[in-house]
Amino acid sequence: NWDASNIIADQVAKIRQQVGEHQVICGLSGGVDSAVAATLVHKAIGDQLTCVFVDHGLLRKGEADQVKHDFVAATGIKLITVDASEDFLQALKGVSEPEHKRKIIGEKFIRTFEKAQQQVIEEAGKTGKEVKFLVQGTLYPDVVESGGGDGAANIKSHHNVGGLPKDVKFQLIEPLRTLFKDEVRAIGSQMGLPDDIVWRQPFPGPGLGIRIIGDITKERLDLLREADAIAREELSTAGLDRDIWQCPVVLLANVHSVGVQGDERTYGSPIVLRPVSSEDAMTADWSRLPYDVLARISTRITNECRGINRVVLDVTSKPPATIEWE
Ligand code: XMP
Q1: Minimal CB count within 10 Å: which of 95, 125, 286, 307?
Q2: EC number(s) for this protein (predicted)?
Q3: Is 211 in the pocket of ligand 1 (CB under 6 A)?
């Protein structure tokens, strides 16, 4: 019989035993999984935990501030922020193959955590003592789809599973590894996390990097960030946030089509809207969003995002497509 309180009590005891006196860091992404994982670990070991938020330059509009303020306000957990955007963008330069992007991003995250270690040690006042553990909010579906489940195929390397480098020095603490998202949300609520964290829609760790089809540049990221912010704003205004699982907004950077804007010919890229409904992300259906909401999103994106002259809707379920395009 599934019970959130039992799982919390079990995990807290397990984590306490595993960690002992050591320092622990947790990579925070802004999403519900890492927030719940961090809160569980904090419950177990208090100030031995420091969260690290990596700004990899692939975030959505306003996301970094949200994490820095909302999460800390809700939990009181120690947080350090690392701006690694130049570093990530440099490493991703010219890369367009999805698995290659994912491996680079997974590796960069770990290297950034390794560097952040020093700061954690200094602040903890325990110079010389290594940070032994890294907490990740890995869920059961992430493990399965990264090829970590029994005999499962590698569909895509989730940044915190198949995307990890082989020589990770940290021992991993993954208290959510056997759970599905709805269970994680139940645990988060039970521990008192606010609704706007618990009900945040999923956003992948590799961020907008896997929503630009083609190679990643600063200009493309800025363009996609704007389009994504418009779609999110309109979906929220229409009160649809809890009706859909998530709505990836994807830039087909290497596709061009002809348009006419302000009496002039344009030759721009399309934006894809990918609204989906799902229980656990293992399967999904495309969401039948109201036409007027789609129309508003389309009008605003083509008016406000210079270089976008077409908005298209993805009407494929999973399978055969995955939710994200890469
Ligand atoms: P797919 O595209 O595999 O996505 O159907 C299933 C769910 O997982 C999210 N996703 C990720 N989350 N790291 C994450 O933290 C990743 O590398 C990653 N890849 C996909 C995706 O947004 C969807 O909710």
Answers
A1: 125
A2: 6.3.5.2
A3: no
Q: Which amino acid is at 171?
A: Q
Mean of per-residue pLDDT scores for the chain: 94
**Residue 150 binned pLDDT confidence (cut-offs 50, 70, 90):** low
Pocket test for ligand 1, best of 107, 158, 208, 283 (most atoms within 8 A of CB): 158
Confidence of residue 125 (pLDDT cuts 50, 70, 90): confident
Nearest in space to 227 (alpha carbons), one of 126, 301, 316, 310:
301
Q: How far apart are CA 231 and CA 96, in angstroms?
A: 24
- Please give the Cα distance from 120 to 146 (Å, whole number): 30
* Domains of the chain as residue ranges with CATH: 4-198 (3.40.50.620), 211-313 (3.30.300.10)
